[in-house]
Design goal:
Elements lengths: L1 E6 L2 E4 L4 E9 L4 E9 L6 E7 L5 E3 L7 E6 L4 E6 L8 E9 L7 E2 L3 E6 L1
Parallel strand pairs: 2-11
Antiparallel strand pairs: 1-3, 3-8, 4-5, 4-9, 5-6, 7-8, 9-10, 9-11
């Protein structure tokens, strides 16, 4: 069984930074990509960023470009999300996701980590 476990969330003032981590554990699985989604209170879950596991190509939603950076450590089986210049509207539960090879969707999800930005 593959498990994704996020860490690094917390309460931070606007303008601050956080680094989210997501470690994949359990059965070895071949992944095409990993990424992050978020869900703010009363809003739908939305894509934030993703990274191709092989090659490292990155993709971001427009509203986070220039502030968020996704990266991966293949040896540690971990994906990171560096979040800078945090805004109150970044407040959300952040979910780590993985797309296994052969899947057309993100089919592995972590339980989420809360990020709260105070103004």
């Amino acid at each position: 069984q593959v498990q994704l476990v996020e860490s690094g969330g917390g309460l931070v003032q606007a303008g601050g930074s956080l680094r989210l981590s997501c470690a994949a554990s359990g059965r070895t699985f071949s992944r095409y990509a990993m990424g992050w989604f978020r869900q703010a209170p009363g809003k739908e879950r939305e894509f934030v960023a993703s990274i191709r596991w092989s090659g490292g190509n990155t993709y971001y939603r427009d509203s986070v470009k220039g502030r968020f950076t996704i990266s991966r450590d293949i040896v540690k089986n971990t994906v990171y999300l560096q979040i800078n210049s945090l805004k109150p509207e970044d407040t959300a539960v952040y979910y780590c996701v993985a797309q296994t090879v052969g899947s057309n969707e993100y089919d592995r999800w972590g339980p989420g980590t809360q990020v709260t930005v105070s103004s």
